[in-house]
Amino acid sequence: MGYSQCRFLELSAIIDRNCSRLEQKGRPREPSSGLDRITAAEIDELLIQQKSERQTTVIVVTHDVHGARRVGDRFAVFDKGDLVAFGTAAEVEQSEHETARKLISES
How much is the pLDDT for 44? Predict the structure, then answer.
């Protein structure tokens, strides 16, 4: 079984067990880290489905702006450890912080 399939099964198992966090070595793990675009999109769909079915909040820590925009309703942008913007994609696009504007518009 390839890495992508293992990551998908790992996330599915965590959701099935109703776990609250996906972690690796005590640190949050990006759900689609190191995956091809097709598998990453499948994981995004799984998160969207679970968010809707369970009517719950999903917090995803990621550098994948495209995936974040698919899954997220609100975004927090950090620059060198400081929170520099928070809000919807449209609100972050209007941020005074240049890095936040550039980051959210990358998708």
Answer: 85
What local confidence, expressed as pLDDT, does residue 7 receive? 64
Considering only CA atoms, which of 65, 27, 70 is closest in space to residue 49? 70
Helix locations, the chain, DSSP H = 3-16, 37-54, 65-71, 89-93, 98-104
Tell whether the torsion through CA atoms of 97, 99, 105 and 107 is positive or negative. Answer: negative
How many angstroms separate the CA atoms of 27 and 30, rounded? 10
Maximum CA pair distance of the chain? 46
Stretches in the chain below the pLDDT threshold 70: 1-32, 107
pLDDT of res. 26: 44
Distance CA 103, CA 95 (A): 11
Domain layout of the chain by residue ranges: 1-57
102 HSE (CA, 13 A, CB side): 5
